[in-house]
Amino acid sequence: MTKELFRADAYTQSCETTVVSADARGIVLDASVFYPRGGGQPGDSGALHLADGTEIAIADCFKDRETGDHVHVPAEGAPLPEIGAAVTAEIDWQRRHRMMRMHTALHLLCAVVEGGVTGGSIGPDKSRLDFDLPDTALDKEHIQSELNRLVGENLVVSVSSVSDAELDANPDLVRTMSVKPPSGAGSVRIIDIAGADLQPCGGTHVANTGEIGALRVGKIENKGAHNRRINIHLEN
Question: Which of 180, 206, 175 is nearest to 193 (CA)?
Fold first, then answer.
């Protein structure tokens, strides 16, 4: 199982690690700073740097659910390293940081809009959440104003955990209706935006809401009798 260094510190941009396997599927490392796609957040891209100067571009990363390995997908035409090779794994930090800003912004959207979340997607410039809001009128200007108010309050974003039993006893913590947080490992990771939002999440986030920057609410779409899709954008 790949050691997930980004869990402890989402700001870690590189690490020294070792190649465990390399085949047509991709490259497995014993430890990684690359976030594997999941929870609506895309996998990180970046590069692996070998001691001889070879650079292997990484286009994506995903998690093998059976083994727990993180599979780093090389860009088309990139070479594969030897098993046991020492490498420096480095993420595309500019892209990752935008994902962190966006993912945290979606938590603020959950704080502003009351309703179960039925789906979502995170991108470096535009993201969305779908809410179960039948017969509900949504005020775009109000949502945008409230989001930017929470950004301006520079709220601390912290990471903690609760036991499986504690989560079962507090079902209101779970906002996602279609995907439940993983359980069975003894504890569930919790993201706490001080005074605004508290919910299970395995993604990467900024340290405070001020780091998100100005937000703009885009289209609010009707995607069915119980689905209202809210799109948000980073202004810079």
Answer: 206
Count of Cβ atoms closer than 10 Å to residue 87 Cβ: 23
Q: Do 157 and 193 touch, CB atoms closer than 8 A?
A: yes
Superfamily for the 96-234 domain: Threonyl-trna Synthetase; Chain A, domain 2 (3.30.980.10)
- In angstroms, what CA-CA distances link 38 with 61, 87, 101, 131, 144? 10, 25, 16, 19, 26
Query: By C-alpha distance, which of 223, 77, 234 is closest to 148?
Result: 234
**Domain topology for 3-91:** Elongation Factor Tu (Ef-tu); domain 3 (2.40.30)
Give the tens place of pLDDT for each residue, 160-212.
Answer: 988 878 877 777 777 675 556 655 567 888 999 999 999 999 999 999 999 99
Q: Which of 3, 6, 9, 5 is nearest to 207 (CA)?
A: 9
In 3D, which of 220, 230, 197, 219 has the Cα closest to residue 119? Answer: 230
Residues 6+ apart with CB under 8 A from 65: none
Contact (CB, 8 A) for 7 and 203: no
